[in-house]
């Protein structure tokens, strides 16, 4: 199964949802969480919204996890040991208010995700193999973030 999720942002991400239809034509089940997108990809299982537990189950079961460039979705996938394909929303297409998802995607370390555009998905996924990382508890990110913040606070105090 291929999972495609656009998250919960109020602007449609029709480019990504439309690209899912091309994936469905390759003979594999494609599940699309489309949010408020206006496209209905033929050949896909489509839901507008999904509860967090089901989304997590789909992330665990999918052969490929394709996500919009939101940090929460990315962190959830990484906590499950997944290396997602991240497709950032772009302001110029009316998919978001600015290009912070593009900037976030550019900051992802190699091996943490693959960043792609909707038009590249079919070719990318045709040759996709994922080296899954060990399942990390959700607190692992929080622990690393806390240590980073503590270090920044200490450094600021030392400069003062």
Layout: helices, strands, pairs:
Layout: E1 2-5, H1 14-24, E2 30-33, E3 45-47, H2 52-61, E4 64-68, H3 71-79, E5 85-87, H4 100-107, E6 114-115, H5 121-126, H6 139-159
Parallel strand pairs: 1-2, 1-4, 2-3, 4-5, 5-6
Protein architecture, described:
With 160 residues, the chain is an alpha/beta fold. The chain has a single domain (2-135), classed as Glycogen Phosphorylase B (Rossmann fold). The protein contains six helices and six strands, in the order E-H-E-E-H-E-H-E-H-E-H-H. It has helices spanning 14-24, 52-61, 71-79, 100-107, 121-126, 139-159; strands at 2-5, 30-33, 45-47, 64-68, 85-87, 114-115. The chain has a six-stranded parallel beta sheet with strand order 3-2-1-4-5-6, sandwiched between helices. Strand 4 (64-68), helix 3 and strand 5 form a beta-alpha-beta unit. The mean pLDDT is 89.
CATH topology: Rossmann fold
Please indicate the count of domains.
1
> Order of SSEs, N→C?
EHEEHEHEHEHH
- Count every helix, treating DSSP H or I runs of 4 or more residues as helices: 6
The shape is: globular
Overview features:
160 residues, alpha/beta, Rossmann fold, 6 helices, 6 strands, 13% strand
Give a nutshell description of this structure.
It is built from six helices and six strands; from the N terminus they run βαββαβαβαβαα.
């Amino acid at each position: 199964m291929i999972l495609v999720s656009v998250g919960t942002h109020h602007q449609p991400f029709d480019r990504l949802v439309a690209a899912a239809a091309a994936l469905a034509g390759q003979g594999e089940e494609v599940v699309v969480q489309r949010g408020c997108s206006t496209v209905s990809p033929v050949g896909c299982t489509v839901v507008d919204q999904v509860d967090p537990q089901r989304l997590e189950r789909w992330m665990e079961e999918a052969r490929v996890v394709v996500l919009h460039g939101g940090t929460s979705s990315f962190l959830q996938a990484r906590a499950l040991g997944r290396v997602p394909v991240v497709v950032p929303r772009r302001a110029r297409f009316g998919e978001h208010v600015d290009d912070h998802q593009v900037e976030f995607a550019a900051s992802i370390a190699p091996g943490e995700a693959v960043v792609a555009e909707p038009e590249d998905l079919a070719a990318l996924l045709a040759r996709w193999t994922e080296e899954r990382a060990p399942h990390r508890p959700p607190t692992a990110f929080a622990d690393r973030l806390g240590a980073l913040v503590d270090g920044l606070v200490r450094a600021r105090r030392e400069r003062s």
